[in-house]
Write a structure and sequence with these properties.
Length: about 375
């Protein structure tokens, strides 16, 4: 039985602690509880929810597809292979932490400060404490101290701002994705009853882009902004294993680079961890085998966002309106499903400049 120190009580930390339940696990979380502040739109695939629902009944809404909205306001309604679910992250994080505490010792208000060799310094309720470990898991989010302490490469980071407000959605069971309204990414509205989580992810200045978006959709917003959250999204998987130290979740860049969604990869990584621990090389290889190609292709889609201009988005969305069947085999967690339809898509894009952009990113 190995002594494992898990840093971070978010979904990656709690699911890692659950995965390592046959070992002696100590999980430290710097806050009083998990899930605060909530920095998540809560949109995950049904498949991902299927893995989480055994721990938490946190579903708020069911989603059957998305409206892809062009800068001109034209939109197309697309339904892919996968359905989605909107969840309550506060409830999920709380329930996962509670489940993890059945198997692991959990210290809240306890911050990992640094480590030397196999000894970590923890500030526990304001008091310096030292903990010995055989393995150290950095599940401490995008600005991971564990990663910095052990010299792990860091991913690129995007900024995100999200509000919750009363919202007249185009449809109660469809997400709205707004393109061309942020720097290098997109904006979204995720509906929950009469409300929505409206957010923007961007390379810079997301608040400014969010204000523009809120102005644009102001006729569908009523009442006060209920919650405003600022967050960060890591882009690009980094090397996440170094001897007996490893990273899981945002700390490792385990996030879909084309949507910013992290929960699916966390469930995937921790399922693999449960099967492979303590063989960390196998843990790493199996995760990269399963998901590496998806992340690589997802990175191409992410790079495309910076290449496309308003005219391109308008044209592509108009094109999709005449070819909605193209979306039917696409899976929200598996962007390589796009490869199947790419040849037919390329055939119908009769704009040399746009085609060049698509091919320069997607076909390399
Ligand atoms: C605006 C926004 C919207 C998003 N929407 C979605 C979505 O719709 N779907 C989706 O799948 N994903 C979404 N994501 C991404 C998702 O929220 C993250 O991928 C996920 O929270 C990562 O989980 P994690 O456990 O790795 O990190 P976190 O959730 O960040 O948890 C890390 C934990 O570590 C603790 N911690 C940090 N440092 C220390 C330390 N030194 N010592 C002890 N504890 C520490 C923190 O307090 C925190 O509790 C979104 C992100 C943002 C910013």
């Amino acid at each position: 039985m190995a002594k494992v120190l898990v840093v971070g009580g978010g979904p990656a930390g709690s699911l890692s602690a659950i995965a390592l339940k046959d070992h002696e696990v100590l999980m430290v979380e710097e806050h009083q509880s998990a899930g605060f502040p909530m920095q998540c739109a809560g949109l995950i695939s049904e498949e991902c929810y299927g893995r989480l629902k055994r721990y938490s009944d946190c579903k708020l809404n069911e989603i059957r597809g998305a409206f892809f909205i062009a800068p001109s306001g034209k939109f197309v309604e697309l339904e892919g292979k996968s359905k989605a679910v909107v969840i309550d992250r506060k409830i999920l994080d709380r329930d996962l932490l509670e489940k993890a505490s059945e198997f692991a010792e959990v210290w809240v208000k306890s911050k990992f400060m640094k480590a030397h060799g196999r000894r970590a310094e923890i500030m526990k309720m304001g008091e310096r404490t030292f903990v010995e470990f055989d393995y150290l898991v950095g599940a401490d989010g995008v600005y991971s101290r564990v990663a910095r302490c052990f010299g792990f490469e860091r991913p690129e980071v995007l900024s995100a701002v999200q509000v919750e407000c009363r919202y007249e959605a185009l449809s109660d069971d469809m997400v709205e994705l707004f393109f061309g309204c942020s720097d290098g990414f997109f904006a979204y509205a995720v509906p929950i009853d009469e409300y929505a989580r409206v957010g923007v992810v961007s390379k810079s200045n997301p608040l400014c882009y969010l204000k523009n978006l809120l102005r644009r959709i102001s006729d569908r917003i009523s009442g006060k902004i209920l919650e405003l959250n600022v967050g960060a999204i890591p882009i690009g998987l980094v090397e996440f294993v170094k001897e007996k130290v490893f990273l899981v979740g945002d700390s490792a860049g385990m996030v879909k680079p084309y949507t910013g969604g992290g929960l699916f990869y966390i469930t995937e990584a921790t399922e693999i961890l449960a099967k492979t621990f303590p063989n960390l090389e196998e843990f790493r290889n199996r995760f990269v085998e399963d998901i590496g190609r998806e992340i690589e292709f997802g990175m191409k889609i992410y790079r495309l966002y910076s290449k496309l201009d308003d005219e391109d988005y308008d044209f592509l969305i108009e094109l999709a309106r005449d070819n909605v069947e193209i979306a039917k085999d696409l899976h929200m967690d598996r962007p390589t499903t796009l490869l199947k339809v790419l040849p037919s898509l390329i055939k119908i894009v009769r704009r040399p400049k746009l085609l060049k952009k698509l091919l320069s990113v997607l076909a390399t």
